[in-house]
Specification:
- With 438 residues, the chain is α/β, with parallel strands linked by helices.
- It contains 14 helices and 17 strands.
- The chain has helices spanning 80-90, 97-113, 129-141, 157-160, 164-173, 198-207, 223-231, 249-258, 266-272, 279-285, 303-324, 336-350, 384-391, 418-437; strands at residues 2-11, 19-28, 31-37, 46-49, 53-57, 59-64, 116-123, 145-150, 181-186, 211-215, 240-243, 261-264, 289-291, 368-372, 397-402, 405-409, 412-413.
- The strands form two sheets. Strands 1, 2, 3, 4, 5, 14, 15, 16 and 17 form a nine-stranded mixed beta sheet that branches. An eight-stranded parallel beta sheet has the order 6-7-8-9-10-11-12-13.
- The structure holds zinc ion.
- Residues 63, 65, 122, 214, 242, 294 line the site of zinc ion.
- Zinc ion (ZN) binds next to loops.
Length: 438
């Protein structure tokens, strides 16, 4: 089946960042067949008028604790310390498989609704394989593209990764051929000189899967963890360093030299206290960036917000650093176009999916969104990147297409029971509210 989306402003996010004004996107099955103006299409192609809109690659969130979504906004005024107490020491243990499922289902739908077509579920509440089964059940029920980053904060990674049922779970659910559901291992490196995490890194190496790790988090992880990973040979191009905020130049050099990428959650770093959002340092060291939302216990899964906040934080730091030298910044280094790249292509590169998604080019999977520019907050248009970063909101995502399937149309989800997912999250919220009163 072929579909053509006609007459939009098409941001390809290809290597040259080609933009087609009055451009078309032709989709054949699950892939993009052609991109450009006035495309000739096969007979019988369904024509969709996208005039007045922006077509851009679906956004990619490389670090989101989806299981926490049923606690949306509960920790709005928390610091990271309060978050750790709640999830790691107290309430995290009470999450049942069905609670993980409720959070993941809601979060998956929220992603599609906000134009996020690929999400890494940084799932560190998997206390048992039953919890992991529940996480996967939700991720496969929502027809977006997901990566399960398996973790368990209630045990050391050397413990849970050694369990035969963990290996069995991985072999049952994941294969490199399935690009709708990827797999990573998610754990942090504390800096203990004995480096107990080594065994978990060896499991990841043995399974051939990437490791994602909260690195450079003030009070939790630091340069020691990076140094231990490096000295033992576990820093690879597929390693994702989440936050990477409170680190010295030595660690940034080690990350750059081994080809890893950073997942920056600017809203999280600013509010929770991991450290100053590090893009100004990452740029200096040539470390590739992707963006992430972290957790809905504070923030929503809205990468428009991530792009805007990241640009602001980077510029804020650039100005302050210059002022300290009695200098004036006359031209901002980080551009709106750069953060759009980080939210799309940057995520694809970080996940090793650059040949699959992240840009609109023939042969890639058809993952894209259409944004409505015909709203008071987005007219007139001089620069399309500026519109995306500073004018548009998640509510202007009109259409979301994943693997050639239209999942959101006219702002309405087509394929899954939205009301049912919201009811499950509300049911969980009632349970929490009742428990907190005791
Ligand atoms: Zn996190």
């Amino acid at each position: 089946m072929t579909l053509v989306f006609r007459n939009a402003t098409v941001l390809t996010m290809d290597d040259a960042h080609t933009v087609h004004h009055g451009g078309d996107v032709l989709v054949d099955g699950e892939r993009i067949a052609a991109v450009g103006p006035h495309l000739e299409v096969p007979e019988g192609t369904t024509e969709i008028d996208a005039s007045g809109g922006i077509v851009m690659p679906g956004m990619i969130d490389t670090h989101r604790h989806m299981w926490q979504t049923a606690m949306r906004g509960y920790g709005a005024d928390w610091t990271l310390t309060q978050y750790f107490v709640w999830y790691y020491l107290q309430w995290g243990k009470t999450f049942r498989p069905q609670d993980i499922y409720a959070g993941n289902l809601l979060s998956g739908l929220e992603a599609l609704d906000a134009g996020v077509t690929t999400t890494v579920d940084w799932s560190h509440g998997l206390q048992t394989v039953d919890h992991a089964e529940a996480a996967v059940a939700a991720l496969t029920e929502v027809p977006g593209r997901f990566v399960l980053a398996y973790g368990n904060i209630q045990q050391g990674p050397w413990e849970w990764s050694a369990a035969p049922e963990f290996r069995d779970f991985v072999s049952r659910h994941f294969s490199p051929a399935n690009d709708m559901l990827g797999f990573q291992m998610a754990f942090d490196v504390t800096g203990d000189p004995a480096f107990p995490e080594q065994a978990a890194f060896e499991v990841a190496r043995d399974l051939g899967v990437p490791v994602t790790t909260h690195a450079g988090v003030w009070g939790a992880t630091n340069d020691d963890g990076i140094r231990l990973m490096h000295e033992h040979g576990f820093m690879t191009p597929s390693t994702i360093y989440v936050h990477a905020a409170t680190l010295t130049r030595d660690s940034y050099h080690r990350i750059a030299a081994t080809g890893g990428t950073a997942s920056v959650s600017t809203e999280s770093e600013q509010s929770a206290g991991q450290g100053y959002p590090p893009t100004w340092q990452l740029r200096e060291h040539g470390i590739p960036v992707s963006l992430s939302m972290d957790t809905s216990v504070w923030w929503s899964g809205d990468l428009f917000s991530a792009m805007r906040t990241t640009l602001g934080a980077d510029r804020s730091r650039e100005h302050l650093e210059a002022h300290a030298r009695q200098e004036t910044v006359t031209h901002c280094h980080l551009r709106a176009e750069d953060v759009v790249d980080w939210a799309t292509r940057g995520g694809a590169k970080a996940l090793g999916l650059d040949s699959v998604v992240g840009s609109l080019e023939p042969g890639k999977k058809a993952d894209f969104v259409i944004l409505n520019l015909d709203v008071p907050n987005a007219v007139p248009t001089y620069d399309v990147y500026s519109q995306i970063v500073y004018a548009l909101k998640a509510s202007e995502v009109e259409t979301t297409v994943v693997g050639g399937k239209t999942l959101l149309k006219d702002g309405k989800l087509l394929t899954v029971a939205e009301a049912q997912a919201m009811a499950k999250a509300k049911e969980y919220a009632k349970k929490v509210a009742a428990s907190l009163k005791q």
